[in-house]
């Protein structure tokens, strides 16, 4: 018997590895002779740094950077020394929660702090980068990040422009000779789960600008500025990228990584599964235990548990996939058509959400539910 465990975090309650180890304890009790392996799981968004760093034996590096409003913020990245890899969530440096609601205006925000994180990781020896770009407060097309990395953006008079989304309109020249030389040795793997182009009605300004504080007039203004910036960048780099699926992610960061740093955009779960090296472990497995805090129809649209379940069944067609979850909405049955054979909410008694999310309670409920699900699986196999 070979059991692979890869459970996404129960946000606000259990980390990916804590959930996985709880399920592993149950699996070893029900199947004492089984080979049981635990892997971290995330989808490239919130929780990815913690899941991959702790699950793959790395360390969290904490540092202060320039926040989206150009004020200092506490930030961090994950360091995986064995592979010289940095794991970064851009939202740790330029995320929407870092901007008070009353101050939201994408013309005023910057990705400069993300560039500072990349510089700090390079100084620690990192040459591979896994960067999740969800949850941004920005619409600067990477202007701030690239400036931090040494690029120069000049106005019509040849003077440097600023580092915010509102400064894009003034850019007339792009000079890349000052980019940090180590960037030539680096590879950027970008976790991107949206397919928006850079500009137009489906672009970053129109679709995501309003949630970042943009009025219709600001959307129109910024879309025009980003379009002009992209045309200049494409001419400078000799490439096309504005129509690339995902170019509009994180206020144009998808475009910036592709056009200036050679970054590869991938769905978050695909990127995470590649980094975990879980594929080989799934070969010949009998059972996959996966899950997340809340299971619903959105889970079936490619979130982490579905991603790992589909990979598991591709590698071991006879494998059964069981999911554990903190709660399941009525539409969660959609996951049964997407690779998960059965799911089990872990609550055993009526309780408040706060009580259910207490770590001790969640661990006990998860372990107990896993044990019962596996006893049923064992009985069905006998």
From TrEMBL:
Gene3D superfamilies: Glycerate kinase, domain 1, Glycerate kinase, domain 2. It is an enzyme of class 2 (transferase). Keywords: Kinase, Transferase. SUPFAM superfamilies: Glycerate kinase I (SSF110738). The keyword Kinase applies. The keyword Kinase applies. InterPro entries: Glyc_kinase_flavodox-like_fold (IPR018193), Glycerate_kinase (IPR004381), Glycerate_kinase_RE-like (IPR018197), Glycerate_kinase_sf (IPR036129). It comes from Selenomonas sputigena. Its EC number is 2.7.1.31. GO terms for molecular function: glycerate kinase activity. Belongs to the glycerate kinase type-1 family. This is Glycerate kinase. It comes from the Bacteria. Transmembrane segments: none annotated.
